[in-house]
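Can't paste images in this forum, so I'm doing it all in text. The chain is below; anyone willing to post the predicted structure tokens underneath?
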Amino acid sequence: DDPPQERWKEVVEHFREPLEAVIEEVLAQLPSTFLPAIEGLMDRVSKFLPSPELRGELEGIAKVLGLSPGTILGLNLNYEFNSGCTSVVAQSSSGALWHGRNLDYSIDGLQSITLNALFTRGGKTVYGGTTYASYIGMLTGMKPNAFSLSVNARDTGGSLWDNLKEWVLHGGEALPFF
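Text version of the structure:
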């Protein structure tokens, strides 16, 4: 129910110290031309990508951290090049369903900014998921008494530029905005 710019404020403030260390490491891994390109992209496509609501979330996170919204967008798009993780769904002999996953990224400190979040509307939980402080997408999510989902990575041989072309020209969706 909070305005988009306020939704992540408490989370980012709580995880600030380890989050700043993770951000430093991720930024060091990105190609030097990536962040300036994303900064420009953020300004040119603000009317449709990301949506005004998601853009507000990125801007709120950026404000708390003292970074630009384009930098936060770039960090959120990092999954697009460093995707990983595997999940499994299994059923016990009693019929209970289990959904488990690993978060096996090679980014130091990521474990220290991992959280289970509940998203509420009108005081009721709409969905929950496991994510990282400052990441506006869900890698694992659950709608209570309905379903769960997770994102898994598979290398199909495409380059970053192939993926970006698919995203822009053929209606692809970047994970944090899906």
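Helices lie at 9-14, 16-29, 34-44, 52-65, 69-76, 79-82, 160-169. Residues 16-29 form the longest helix (14 residues).
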